[in-house]
What does this fold into?
Amino acid sequence: MVSALVRTILVTGGAGYIGSHTVLQLLQQGFRVVVIDNLDNASQVALIRVAELAGHNGANLVFHKVDLRDRHALEDIFSSHRFEAVIHFAGLKAVGESVQKPLLYYDNNLIGTITLLEVMAAHRCKKLVFSSSATVYGWPKEVPCTEEFPLCATNPYGRTKLVIEDICRDVHRSDPEWKIILLRYFNPVGAHPSGYIGEDPCGIPNNLMPYVQQVAVGRRPHLTVYGTDYNTKDGTGVRDYIHVVDLADGHIAALRKLYEDSDKIGCEVYNLGTGKGTSVLEMVAAFEKASGKKIPLVFAGRRPGDAEIVYAATAKAEKELKWKAKYGVEEMCRDLWNWASKNPYGYAGSPEDGSN
Ligand code: NAD
Ligand code: UFG
It folds into this structure.
């Protein structure tokens, strides 16, 4: 069992959606947490709320507004704390934007990660959990996707994930002291059951459920359903939606693995998904039921680059991380609505403050 008492974990991108939920779980389990985030796609209010939710453990949270590419700032932080491990969420993640601005994505995601790995090595901190993505499976030939499937990238964002996975494998090969877990997330949805923290995307949401949530609170008139002619039960795309709290738990399981099975771990990859596929229309129906809100739909053609059906093989994570998702789409939609109805404009509080 991890003794959390003396462990300090660095969380990059910890003010973001998945990061904030994971930081809360870490604090609740007694870890000390240092977050660095440049707040490009996050609000510091998220961390204030995380600290409140964590009660007296909230005092174990330290925040630095720092860009990962700022080597001097990173060096200073590593000089003033002894980190047992790093959970690395920080990165840009909008697929469409990555097609428009590939250099921004390569610069932010790749240079940020390389700088982090170099500073970690210099400070002899060689345990890492990295946020990869199911995007590396592209349009899979079959489902469920196992970790051994061939990998590909269909856009610059996905390519940064593939390259970082390869960098991690190379780094471990060059120095086996590195212990690295690559987590391939499927589709995170929902919010902490308190409704106090959740997803608050800047600008027009790219992803399905943040968009649905904004329709439900009246910020958008309708949801556009991209593609009705897929070879699926109702013609719409199928994905593996996973509750963000389950996803956060997966990170604690990965950390535990890094400590308990340190001698067995090199650079290992795990899917974090539920193993269940849900269509766009099924997700909308589940949300309507949870919220009591009607979501007006406009049907459109397929979105370029979208796969038909993607869901996870979960056996490896279940066996080796002893982790399994607990929640289904009902709980995801319930908690998403709880967050959205209490915070219709996210952390900003009002339309004037928000990025809308
Ligand atoms: P998010 O945008 O909410 O969080 C990322 C955080 O990183 C933000 O708070 C942002 O301000 C910060 N950041 C970005 N670049 C930075 C930099 N150079 N220096 C410091 N901070 C920086 O995104 P999220 O949904 O929480 O995703 C977290 C990670 O998981 C990302 O790496 C993302 O690619 C990956 N991921 C997300 C999904 C998803 O659907 N949400 C799916 C698969 C993988
Ligand atoms: N969809 C719509 N309308 C929308 C948004 C999405 O119909 O407004 C559909 C999509 O066509 C797809 C499904 O809803 O069939 C899910 O789309 P998302 O954009 O929510 O999720 P994706 O699976 O396309 O991609 C997301 C992230 C990727 C990440 C991947 C992990 O955007 O970065 O999940 O599996 F890699």
